[in-house]
Amino acid sequence: MSKNTKEDIEQAIRDAVGRVTGITELDSDLNLVSKELGIAPANFLYIFDIFEKALGLPIHDILKSNNYQVMTVANLTEALYALDKGA
């Protein structure tokens, strides 16, 4: 049974991005690796670490089974929710 709601997961992603980058306004469908956001690739190590700890879910499982398109708030939320449910 899932312990995290979709809202919990989305908030954890937004909080992690905000803590590391200072970006607090994120469009759910904007790719986090887009030039528009300008997030340095190394910052994703910190971002992933923060929300892995917050949610207790292994982000590497999502990254190894998806392409860059998973890197939106909406898609990461869905992927992590499915992982949390054991799907």
Any overview of this molecule?
The chain is mostly helical and 87 residues long. It is 55% helix and 0% strand. Helix 1 packs antiparallel against helix 2 and helix 1 packs across helix 4.
Could you write a compact summary of the structure shown?
The chain is an all-alpha fold and 87 residues long. The protein contains 4 helices and no strands.
Topology:
Blueprint (H helix, E strand, L loop, with lengths): L5 H16 L21 H13 L3 H6 L8 H13 L2
Helix pairs in contact: 1-2, 1-4
pLDDT < 50 runs, ≥5 residues: none
Q: Sheet bearing the most strands, described?
A: none
Q: End-to-end span in angstroms?
A: 10 Å
Order of helices and strands: HHHH
Calculate Rg over CA atoms: 12 Å
Task: Decide which structural class fits the backbone.
Answer: mainly alpha
Helix content: 55-70%
- Categorize the overall geometry: globular
The number of helical elements comes to: 4
Overall strand count: 0
Q: How much strand?
A: under 5%
Give the overall average pLDDT.
92
List its salient traits.
mainly alpha; 4 helices; single chain; 87 residues
